[in-house]
Amino acid sequence: MSRGPRAEASGQQGEGTGGTPGRAILHVELDAFVASVELARRPQLRGRPVIVGEASRGVVVAATDEARAFGVRPEMPMATALQLCPQAVVVTPDHHAYAEVSAGFLRLLGDITVLVEHVGVGEAFLDVTGARRRWGPPTAIAELIRTRVRQQLGITCSVGIGSTKLVARLASAHARPDGVLVVPRPATRAFLRVLPVGALWCVGEKTEAALARRGITTLAELADTEVSIVQRAVGTVAGAHLVDLAWGRDPRPVTPGCRERSIGVDETFPTDVSDLTVVEEKVRELTDRCAARMRAKGLVTRTIIVQIGTSDARTLARSRTLVTPTDGGRELFLVARELMAGVDLRGLHVRLVGVRAGELSRVPTTVRRPRWDEAAEEPAGERRTAGQPVDRVRGVPSSRPVRAGASQAGGVSSRSTTTFVPADLS
């Protein structure tokens, strides 16, 4: 049974729940994706503490509940994790296997509706408003998806159902693990008001602290606060957006396709490095690889993030937002090098380094004003293909060529765990 906030009469199957006309959004997320895939491949490890990651000097990629009980968490240095849970079984991550399961997951959802928005390797939004005529109410569709995921992929998933993407995603978080939570439109406001502001995915630690300084810790308090006060705390645009979300106002449609949030690469050194020129060369290599992946996907970035892991197990991050989007390795490297130079290592050696590109957008839909040197020297088409020979050497497939003159912008339980709120999803 879901542990999510409910109305007083929740837990009872209301007549017509989710079955009347109106917008119906599902958020489906595979439970503990990486760890679940590894356990499905190695059923003999079920019930044992399992850590997914490189056994030597890497970080924890994922951990089973049995390992988490000892304090093991993702992104934790493997050495620390093994100190907390020395009896854990360490499994090397197999990213090819995860990609295969993710692709199977998308195919499964695509059989339900074409309105599928992939937002992560193991999660997606579905607009099933039109699919109800074929498959029945959203609750029936959710159970169908859970059954197919269990049978075809050998793992479990959780489903949130709401009238907006915001509510559906929050509902699935409260339905974990292996459950369904329905929040019909009439119950939306009551559902949101009991949640902390940190439940909104766009609220990070700094925003949460800024709101807390003004006595705003719940979505009820956020909704009841004057917009101007919230805007003074977090900014004009962000403040108005947060108040809208607190009231459940989220008009974003489900956009079919895969939406990359970020592309990044990192590497752990075999031994801690004190020579910063070695670190800089590694950053150059990582930015080239990151740029190649963006070009292969036809993406450009506006935000560059550099992560440096030090010998005391800390990870320091610095970021910068660019004026114009780019997919150029040299541009990424120059920014990354400046960011790296601004990190105070306090005399510590470097354990790992990573580069990540955020705020990604598709090249054809990005309005990009060329720099003066670009306008004066190389045609846009020639500049964009300049990195392709290096990409081919690396084995990175190139993206679809752009027409001349086109814009260059860039064994699991099958129990039912559905929770019903007795109201119509309309």
From TrEMBL:
Its cofactor is Mg(2+). Monomer. Pfam families: IMS, IMS_C. GO terms for cellular component: cytosol. One of its GO terms (biological process) is DNA-templated DNA replication. Its EC number is 2.7.7.7. PROSITE patterns: UMUC. Poorly processive, error-prone DNA polymerase involved in untargeted mutagenesis. Copies undamaged DNA at stalled replication forks, which arise in vivo from mismatched or misaligned primer ends. These misaligned primers can be extended by PolIV. Exhibits no 3'-5' exonuclease (proofreading) activity. May be involved in translesional synthesis, in conjunction with the beta clamp from PolIII. Residues 371-385 have a biased composition (Basic and acidic residues). The active site is at 123. Binds 2 magnesium ions per subunit. It is found in: Cytoplasm. This is DNA polymerase IV. The record marks 34 as: Substrate discrimination. Residues 410-420 have a biased composition (Polar residues). Keywords: Cytoplasm, DNA damage, DNA repair, DNA replication, DNA-binding, DNA-directed DNA polymerase, Magnesium, Metal-binding, Mutator protein, Nucleotidyltransferase, Transferase. It catalyses: DNA(n) + a 2'-deoxyribonucleoside 5'-triphosphate = DNA(n+1) + diphosphate. Residues 1-21, 371-426 are annotated as: Disordered. Belongs to the DNA polymerase type-Y family. One of its GO terms (molecular function) is magnesium ion binding.
